[in-house]
Amino acid sequence: MLKIAWSPEYCHPLPPGHRFPMEKYELLPEQLLYEGTVTESNFFKPEVVDELLIGQAHDISYWEKLKNLSLSRSEERATGFPLSEALVKREILIAGGSVQAAEFASEHGIALNIAGGTHHAFRDRGEGFCLLNDIALTSFHLLNSQKAMRILVIDLDVHQGNGTAAIFRNEPRVYTFSMHGAKNYPHRKEKSDLDIELADGTADEEYLSILDKNLKKLIDDFQPDFLIYQCGVDVLSSDKLGRLGMSIQGIYERDRKVLSVAKMNNLPIMCCMGGGYSPKISQIIDAHAQVYRLAQEMYF
């Protein structure tokens, strides 16, 4: 059975007018239920991530500041969120969701988290709507438990996975692949194991050709035994923060390529959501929903 991490606490409200679309975390599971892609039994409520695991991916001093709500004003501004106890609880639930989804993926081939993909969080700081790096936490959990020995992170959000790249800079067991807008945030990029920078306006045909060529080569060369897929939909042409030119159909083909490679090579895959900031919330929901539809169709 397809397992999906979700909690009502993912939908923590922000001040009115905040540009981060929290409502998608409530609307996406509702849409998947409404259209019959999933039933209530597909969802599981995650537990908070273990503090010992947080200490592997993040500096303890940074985690203590988060816990105690003692970030400086400049540190808080860098995250893009007003810091609160509820927000920190949301982060550790989301990270727990990705860790537990990876466990389910080890058993069933695939599992997903309705949130996550918090790839801008560094060891010692948060940035860009990310406080804790769920991709890093999940990777360390898989390595610690020997559920994986070689993890390939496929980050297809429009923004570079800079925090993930920095955390795993000297970790040969985790290969970071980020395909992102060249002129987009973050303006100071980190060095992933493989970065592919895309020009503004890059559309479906070019994007999918580049992905296809590099994904197959990475599987052959790195020979991973687990995939973590950050499937942000801010690559849409309508996205307010994206600057690329992809269509809904293009995102469908992107997700299909990634899931097909995983299934064909018998590689467990955990999918976490990443960004999506189109003006119409319906476009965000439809774009995100496609990977869940594909997971059900291809695996179950």
UniProtKB/TrEMBL annotation:
Pfam families: Hist_deacetyl. This is Histone deacetylase. GO terms for biological process: epigenetic regulation of gene expression. Gene3D superfamilies: Histone deacetylase domain. Keywords: Hydrolase. GO terms for molecular function: histone deacetylase activity; hydrolase activity. Belongs to the histone deacetylase family. It comes from the Bacteria. The keyword Hydrolase applies. The keyword tRNA processing does not apply. Residues 18-288 form the Histone deacetylase domain.
